[in-house]
Specification:
85 residues; mainly alpha; two-stranded parallel ribbon; 4 helices; 56% helix; globular
C-alpha cells in the first residue's frame, strides 16, 4: 500500500483539481449544445475550457474518443490521440 500511496502523491503533484463547479457546468452545457458529446465528456472538456480559458490554443488535450477529440479540436485545443502499435 505504501508504494501506491507514494505513486499517488507523485501523480497528484502534476494535476490540477478544478473546483469551479458552476463554471464547469455552464461550459459543459454550452459544449453539449455545440457538439454531439456525452454528458461526462462535456464535463471533462468543460473543465479544461474553464482551467485554460483563452490559452487553450497552446494546450494539448489527450483523448482516445473520436467525438470528444473532434469537439476539443473545434473548441481550440491541440488534440493528441495516442494509438496502440
Amino acid at each position: 500500500m505504501v508504494v501506491a500511496d507514494d505513486r499517488l502523491d507523485k501523480l497528484s503533484a502534476r494535476w490540477t483539481e478544478v473546483t469551479a463547479v458552476t463554471e464547469v457546468r455552464n461550459a459543459a452545457e454550452r459544449l453539449l449544445r455545440a457538439y454531439p458529446l456525452r454528458a461526462a465528456d462535456s464535463l471533462q472538456l468543460g473543465a479544461c475550457v474553464v482551467v485554460f480559458g483563452a490559452q487553450r490554443r497552446d494546450r494539448e488535450f489527450v483523448v482516445l474518443d473520436d467525438l470528444l477529440a473532434d469537439a476539443a479540436r473545434q473548441d481550440g485545443f491541440k488534440v493528441v490521440m495516442p494509438r496502440e502499435p
